[in-house]
Design goal:
By secondary structure, this protein is an alpha/beta fold. It has one domain (3-211): Ribonuclease Z/Hydroxyacylglutathione hydrolase-like (Metallo-beta-lactamase, Chain A, 4-Layer Sandwich). It contains seven helices and 14 strands. Strand 3 (25-29), helix 1 and strand 4 form a beta-alpha-beta unit. The longest helix has 13 residues, at 36-48. The protein starts with a strand and ends in a 5-residue tail after the last helix. The relative contact order is 0.14.
Length: 212
């Protein structure tokens, strides 16, 4: 069974996820930690639970989801893994942060790229990868059928969807990603988003005004 814990970090209230199983190996997804207090909160949780970070995984490369990449590299020696189509945002991290008035250390560049169908392994556990563009060209969603959850970044939210008006976003592509990639996974699947509360595919199928 996969255990999941999330923190809400930074001025954009971004959800950072830590996943682990009984081996204590863990992965960190979308580290939005952006100051010493948030860094400590994340590392204290990892150390107090005796977790062993193995991979740094990104759903996408937007500034609020990668603020902690440098800290994760310095602390655990992990480089980010992301879809190749979002490398542009990582390259522009410092410049983008300055536009928003956010202090930021330049993110390290990825060590490798993740593609649709790839398996993310840690301990005895796996996540499967879906390419779900629209919010960004390289947006990825990760799911586990046995534990019935999806970590979808900024693709699908409780009662809403991700923005598509940011650079290289596309509304039609985003809707297609949700309907063709996420919805077929089943109504029982819990969706952990990049911001806000969790939801389910079933709830969004019935109630999301963007998916009618």
């Amino acid at each position: 069974m996969i255990n999941l814990h999330f923190f809400t970090f930074g001025p954009f209230q971004e959800n950072t996820y830590v996943l682990w199983d009984d081996t204590k190996e863990c992965i960190i997804l979308d580290p939005g930690n952006s100051n010493a207090t948030e860094n400590k909160k994340l590392s204290d949780f990892i150390s107090q639970n005796l977790l062993i970070p193995k991979r740094l995984i990104l759903t996408h490369g937007h500034v609020d989801h990668i603020s902690g990449n440098k800290y994760i590299l310095d602390t655990y020696g992990l480089l980010p893994e992301v879809h190749k189509d979002d490398v542009y945002f990582i390259e522009k991290h410092s410049a983008t942060a300055s536009i928003y008035g956010i202090p930021a250390e330049q993110s390290p560049m990825p060590k490798s790229f993740i593609n649709e169908g790839d398996t993310i392994s840690f301990g005895n556990s796996t996540l499967k990868t879906l390419h779900t563009p629209g919010h960004s060209p390289g947006s990825l969603s990760f799911y586990n059928k046995e534990d019935a959850f999806i970590i979808g970044g900024d693709v699908l939210f409780y009662g809403s969807i991700g923005r598509s008006d940011l650079p290289m976003g596309n509304h039609e592509t985003l809707i297609r990603s949700i309907k063709e990639k996420l919805m077929p996974l089943g109504d029982h699947m819990k969706v952990y988003s990049g911001h806000g509360m969790a939801t389910t595919i079933g709830f969004e199928r019935m109630n999301n005004p963007f998916l009618g």
